[in-house]
Design brief:
The protein is mainly α. The chain is about 75% helix and about 0% strand. The protein has one domain.
């Protein structure tokens, strides 16, 4: 008797993948705007209209991705936004103290690199039609 193979995640509709691409593009646009302007990348990522629109779009459309490999990208994008906000708040509190500035500045730099990594890594795996890490 052979064991039944469990099916993997089903294939998403093209619109689900298009929305995930749009969200990565909006976050990338926010990063580019920060590089071209006077704001920092993490504050542009969190506070810019493209990134806020991206996270709202994630929440509105993530039900369409449920049960597909693209669902992990929606989760990845949402977590990237909220964990960035959490770490920026922590760094902001540290920055408000004289002693904490020494920790906050490198923390802001690390958050920036982490955001760029998450967007780049996620977008590349989406392009290859691969799930994100859980």
């Amino acid at each position: 008797m052979t064991a039944a193979l469990e099916p993997g995640p089903r294939e998403p509709l093209p619109s689900v993948v298009n929305v995930a691409n749009l969200v990565y593009a909006l976050h990338s646009f926010a990063i580019v705007v920060a590089l071209a302007g006077s704001t920092t990348i993490v504050f542009s990522f969190l506070g810019s209209l493209p990134s806020i629109a991206a996270v709202v779009l994630n929440y509105v459309k993530r039900g369409d991705a449920r049960g597909t490999w693209a669902e992990s990208h929606y989760r990845w994008q949402i977590r990237t936004f909220w964990y960035t906000l959490l770490w920026v708040c922590i760094a902001g509190v540290l920055f408000a103290t004289l002693v904490g500035i020494i920790i906050a500045v490198p923390l802001f730099a690390a958050i920036t690199l982490w955001v760029v990594y998450r967007i780049a890594k996620g977008w590349m795996r989406l392009r290859d039609r691969r799930e994100m890490y859980v």
